[in-house]
Amino acid sequence: MPPVRNLVEDAQKALEASIMYYKGQAVGTIAARDKDALALNYDQCFVRDFVSSALVFLITGREDIVRNFLEITLTLQSQERRMDCFKPGLGLMPASFKVELRGGGEVLIADFGEHAIARVTPIDSCLWWMILLRAYVKATGDLALANRSDFQHGMRLILRLCLETRFDMYPTLLVPDGSFMIDRRMGVYGYPLEIQALFYAALRSAEELLLPNDLDGIRTAVIERLGHLAFHMRSYYWLDMQRLSEIYHYKGEEFGISAVNKFNIYASSIPAWFINWLPDEGGYFAGNIGPGLIDFRFFTLGNLMSVITSLSTKEQSSNILTLVANRWDDLVGQMPMKICFPAVEDRDWQLFTGFDPKNVPWSYHNGGNWPVLLWFLVAAAVKTGNIPLAENAIKLTEARLGKDLFPEYYDGKNGRLIGKEARRYQTWSIAAFLLSKQLIANPEHLKLISFEEDNRAIACEF
Ligand code: GLC
What we know:
Elements: H1 7-17, E1 19-22, E2 25-29, E3 45-46, H2 47-59, H3 63-77, E4 96-102, E5 105-111, H4 123-140, H5 143-147, H6 149-163, H7 193-209, H8 218-237, E6 238-239, H9 241-248, H10 272-277, E7 284-285, E8 288-290, E9 293-295, E10 298-299, H11 300-309, H12 314-326, H13 328-331, E11 340-341, H14 346-353, H15 373-383, H16 387-400, E12 410-411, E13 417-418, H17 427-441
Helix pairs in contact: 1-17, 2-4, 2-17, 3-4, 4-7, 6-7, 6-8, 7-8, 7-11, 11-12, 11-15, 15-16, 15-17, 16-17
The structure holds alpha-D-glucopyranose.
Residues 31, 46, 48-49, 181, 183 line the site of alpha-D-glucopyranose.
């Protein structure tokens, strides 16, 4: 009889095997350890992917790896980089980095998007870096690291880049397509939810970590922005039956400060799927808001991070979880959980993705199911007291994840098939499973990544 496989042990071993070393020290985890697939850049340590591993390490007493990671990425932050001859500004963190042997020694090679497919800018990396720094401090109490002048300087570079006044009327961050987990063209430029949720979490992290001496006014700017951002997101991004009815009856072409329909949304732009799909109970944050635009798609990471970080109010958070429960088959299906819903198809697929064969409907970024999202779901469920929902989601992964060798993503309307081009032994799929088990076993761990309710939303209505 074959030995009974223990999924947790398998996952622990696989996570261990993914650790990357630099000058003898553990500094990160590679994205995937799949011998049968083309490596491309999956042999690198991605900042966003590492967060899932890092939280597991912080919980299991391997804080040293997280500290090393924070230190070396900080040194990479100020490295000169260029696209052709153009030098982008400082502050960004790399999408990924690797260790290479050069001239008999090891060197770190970072990618700020200048090597990445389509040269996408990894805007989420610097936000994740701050969120992770705060998680490290929470787990270890090592505030001295964040207080170090190089760390205070690194945080300020990021914040300056984010808080810079620009050609913009909104408190949200304006970004190009593919600047976060969805790192390909998918019609997610402008003000995508995921970036706003991470921006909010990064600002809250900065509020805790910046030293009180505020000679350059950055700390004050952070606190002020938090209020405006929270107000903007909670008021304008929110979608539920009541909002649908408001939008449905909007008038267009309203000019001046008394306009109700501030973004000039036309009722005829509400997609039919949304009207049919939105349950009576529950709601969520729209994928994007801009001039004349609401992207009604449900984006999972942004919505769940809003719950975890208290960007959404208590009531909105509980409504987001209600929506997930009410639309379980669509959003969770056979593998938690869908990256976004619904997929864009036909002419929309052509226009949004530029005919991208990897992002065909119900695959990869275009409505694929990603096991990494399990931990976000479990964390949001634990935060809102929905333990049975979290347990059901974990059970689904237990049935398949190990057997399928921890794929990167699944395809199909309900996530039934292993993704066509999915890597196996994808590290964040492995870490998400371990982290979810840890969060359920001890909900106290949630505080590494969550924030208390915040009622400072600043409304400045005229
Ligand atoms: C893909 C994903 C991206 C991830 C990377 C490494 O490019 O879209 O989110 O960071 O793979 O796993």
